[in-house]
Amino acid sequence: MSRFEYAPAPESRAIVDIKSSYGLFVNGQFVEATDGKPFKTVSPSSEEVLAEISEAGPADVDKAVKAARKAFEKVWGPMSGRDRAKYLFRIARLIQERSRELAVLESLDNGKPIRESRDVDIPLVAAHFFYYAGWADKLEYAGVGEDPQPWGVAGQVIPWNFPMLMLAWKIAPALAAGNTVILKPAETTPLTALAFAEICQQADLPPGVVNIVTGAGRTGQTLVEHPDVDKVAFTGSTEVGRAIAKSVAGSDKAVTLELGGKAANIVFEDAPIDQTIEGIVNGIFFNQGHVCCAGSRLLVQESVYDEVLARLKRRMGTLRVGDPLDKNTDIGAINSAAQLARIRELSQIGEDEGAERWSPECELPAEGYWFPPTVFTGVSQAHRIAREEIFGPVLSVLTFRTPAEAVEKANNTPFGLSAGIWTDKGSRILWMANQLRAGVVWANTFNRFDPTSPFGGYKESGYGREGGRHGLEAYLAH
Amino acid sequence: MTTLDSGVDSLADVTSSEDRLRRFLLGLPGVDQVGAEARAATLSTRSIKTTAKAYALDLAIRMIDLTTLEGQDTPGKVRALCAKAMRPDPADSTAPQVAAVCVYPDLVATAKHELRGSDVKVASVATAFPSGRSSLAVKVQDTKDAVAAGADQVDMVIDRGAFLSGRYGLVFDEIAAIREAAGDAHLKVILETGELVTYDNVRRASWLAMLAGADFIKTSTGKVSPAATLPVTLVMLEAVRDYHESTGLHIGVKPAGGIRTAKDAIKYLVMVNETAGPDWLDPELFRFGASSLLNDLLMQRTKLATGHYPGPDYFTLD
Amino acid sequence: MPTKAASDKPGTRLEVRKTYKLYIGGAFPRSESGRSYVVNNAKGKFLANASQASRKDARDAVVAARKAFGGWSGRTAYNRGQVLYRIAEVMEGRHEQFSSEVALSEGLSISKARAVVDASIDRWVWYAGWADKLAQVVGSSNPVAGPYFDFSLPEATGVVAVLAPQDSSLLGLTSVIAPAIVSGNTVVAVSSYERPLPAVTLGEVMATSDVPGGVVNILTGSASEVGPWLASHLDVNAIDLCGIEDPDEARDLEAASAENLKRVRRPAEEDWTESPGLSRLTQYLELKTVWHPIGL
A446: nearest CA in chain B? Predict the structure, then answer.
């Protein structure tokens, strides 16, 4: 060997034990679905079928809601906050104990690199349960009155990009506040939610407190429209969020929605350049760009445009695309054939509209769903790739001349989830942060998450916050 | 101050006056500590196995400046070290030699004699190492003595006091003077990053040293804690990479002090590979200033070759 | 407004009546539609002709509110508190007028009407004081597990459409406008249909109490007519449906509001004399979380 070529370093699959088929988790038990058609979940990096999954039909959803209602009224609602807390602490510990297994399972089912599932997703999952566990017996200090009450039964629908982390964002605060839940994981990534069901069993969580119903959009719709659901929480596309907001109109259901984004990542000429390049890369290529808050619009001050682009391209050349279970992989597989088709379509539109497309040389595996890290230059605000959420490893680069122009371009979108600012000037950071209409502003960093830190959008990026005290508030009637 | 005839046209202006030099150094992009450390931490999660590990272990051995810089150093100690440098693993003739032996100036002659006929170079610290607190005349003489005694490479220290008080011209002139005094010897400029404290300073000092004629920039004397760290080395690798972009010249990097395990050494090699690039994966452009690191590399090498874990008793102590 | 028929007796005079107009962008236009409608008192006797706002008036009001948003939300919290307090001061000077209008509109005795005006003025004072406390109460500093300073601050949502209560023509109206504007939102309010007069007078107070034009826009007319245009307007960020009494209508407005994910406050039983609490105030806030590394 004459060059330093990293040999394959795959994380072992032996640690996970995937069953050939899974039922629904209702009232503490795995049960057969009664009225849905089973479907398959595949590994997006190989198209290998991992397991057969049950689809929950209306009767199944109804059973799950009844189980949750009963658990809310008989067990979880009356239980002391102290004991609810202890169940959540137990769950947090079980997640830590099984963290490597969960990370491998997540990477298999979702396609994300093991480095991320191992170092980001699963540690954050445990951290969320730890954080909200501590709230369960302190609700009167949450700032929503002296005797805050849970809504009751929460119906929660989550996406496929951070399957288990989104589960934690939903379930941990809901249970801490005293609600019981029915959670529907995404059709393409149900496995870690089903593993979580086992964890609930290992924790001796009372039956019905957590119910997991698998299925596609129809199952989710049945759940959020079920008349005995008191609280709806959804993370996913703005299109579906809008449909949910319509469907709950006129009801008493409380709703929180965490939807799409088209974040501007704004680079000034005095930015700490090497960390900025890392931030741009992390902003758009983290999790294959399957991130609602991804920094998908790079706004670069014209005076440093050439330098930033050259450095970015050089850095993109070192990204390692491939087997999600390889510990040296930076970019894994696109989650599904449908998502890959959408990324391809929008990228083609970018080219057709005259933007210049560039990707580093990288060999993509023959099997599975893959898309190379891609950057579009010569993009203007009018291009569709600058306006629509691509939800893939595709960056659109625009330029600006003054801070005011940067703000104007950044805010010129119906979304308002996140934004990034890169500059060494403190007062400019605070001015920019103040002007940007976005729920999360990362300055000299990007894509950081923490259970104590509220997350959520302005405008069509949804409403309500997840994380922190504010995330707890979303599960308390007030 | 003097300008160097280094053929660096694009940067010639920068060193034409102290004022310009200051403005250039202060105008370098900042380094965000948290971001730099996060990048170093991410790189250190790379998993280097099997063939890649075998390659990295041998490369790391070839990059070692096997070092002894103690008040209690004696010719006997240096002779033993030189024997080890030339034949690191007496039980395995395939183990490569290290790059150099690094000693104080008064022991250069001993080392030179011991290493005669081998490819192992002699490096000498100089310039009132490690504090650098002496007159320029003494530092120049120190350097000349080392070279006269046969040093192939000189590891000088910068005047950190001058640097921290903003007298960049003084630091520049001193490096340039030592550069001249060292003649044909390779010049490694020790920044003593543990005393510069901030990464902004590390980046400025790196550029200052390169502009003044360094062949290598080196993190530490080993006498100040912290010595070499991954993020400090990251910032220095970025500096040599950017300097190469501007000038076409390759400057080497040498982390020194505190690197004791093969695992650590491999993290550095990953960082070199993914920051400065594969060109720098060469003893001509990257060195480890270390002593105990060698035995751990040899142990890992044996493990890889034999499939079982060896013990320290099977490797020589020198 | 008409009182007893004027007589020619010495010492009496024919009063000068007021024209009740809309309040949009700091000006008092009639409805662009040219329409007006008869406003009677609680006993069915003619009080005035009020302008009947149209969808285009609503559109103009939204434009005015959006234009005012940047400046108003960009003011210091201290300044907004001062301006709200100024509203209370100016209302105090018009106490008799408000009392008379409330008495006639709501069919209250003059003493009960005075109590309503007292409560309305006091409500402005209460909300004025919130301006520079809100961020401290609902914001947070977040102890993230890493070298970052992380804080969350409330910010105004934007343009808020308010379909004001039909019954409580002044206290109710105050209780729905004040919590929206104190944090920096701008408002397009549709007043009580049958009891619009105190709303118009409140507009006159706004115009004379340092409230920048466009921050509060008041439309008189039918919430059922104008409401759907506001609910479906893509440049309105939030809507308060408290003045909608028909549940089906409220549902439809909520569904229309989903088009741009408006923050919707559903109609509910409200007792405007109760202490309002924070829920309306926080309804029209966005929480912004800012991260920055902590390093050398």
Answer: B35
